[in-house]
Structures are given as structure tokens and as C-alpha cells.
Design a protein that fits this description.
chaperone; Succinate dehydrogenase assembly factor 3; transit peptide; mainly alpha; globular; mitochondrion; SDHAF3/Sdh7
């Protein structure tokens, strides 16, 4: 029964994050959705020791994004992201640092890989 509850919690978190991504600019949404899908897929076979940390970090991400979306409702300006503390960065594995760097490059470059328009078309 604990397994079913865990699967339900993971699925709920995953769906909530994708729902919150709908408030992001469409190109960042596409990038974020793909990253979330890849990470959740990659961690399907995570060890029992890794699961609590994985869930906690994604829960923190969801909470931060949810707060930013709610704050944006009042002032009509969406501001996404947060700084990572040096302490958090020290706990990252080399692969995670590489992924974070690639994500930062993709999300901040002026001509993103996919220039997706609001109507769903690409340039």
C-alpha cells in the first residue's frame, strides 16, 4: 500500500509542476516541461536513499514556482527562478552541475533552440 501512495504522490507532484509551467512564457515552458519529464523518467529507478531528496527538491521547486505565479497575478509581471545557495551547489553531483549549466545556457540565450510562438507554431 505504501508503494501505491508513493506513486500517487509522485504523479501528483509531476502533474502540478506541468500545470504551473503553463504560466511561463511558451519557450521556457517547453524547456521546463522537457526537463521535468526527463528528470522524473530518469528517477523512476532511483534508489530508496535518493527518493526522499528527489521528492523534496521537486516539492521545493513546485512551491517556489507556485509562489511566483501567485505573486505575478497581482502585479501582472512574471518573474521566474531563484538563486541557488553555495551549500546546495556543493551537494550536486558533477552530472547535475552539467545539466544545470546547460539549462542556464539554454534559458538565457537570446535565440533559443526553439522559438515557439504563442499560437504554438515554431520559427
Amino acid at each position: 500500500m505504501a508503494h501505491a501512495a508513493h506513486v500517487s504522490a509522485v504523479r501528483s507532484l509531476y502533474k502540478r509542476i506541468l500545470l504551473l509551467h503553463r504560466f511561463m512564457p511558451i519557450d521556457l515552458r517547453a524547456l521546463g516541461d522537457q526537463y521535468v519529464k526527463d528528470e522524473f523518467r530518469r528517477h523512476k529507478t532511483a534508489s530508496p536513499e535518493e527518493v526522499p531528496r528527489f521528492m523534496a527538491e521537486w516539492q521545493n521547486y513546485k512551491n517556489t514556482l507556485q509562489t511566483q505565479v501567485l505573486e505575478a497575478v497581482g502585479n501582472k509581471q512574471l518573474v521566474f527562478g531563484t538563486d541557488l545557495s553555495e551549500e546546495k551547489l556543493k551537494n550536486f553531483q558533477d552530472e547535475q552541475i552539467g545539466q544545470l549549466y546547460e539549462l542556464m545556457l539554454e534559458s538565457t540565450k537570446p535565440n533559443r533552440q526553439f522559438d515557439i510562438q504563442e499560437d504554438g507554431t515554431t520559427k
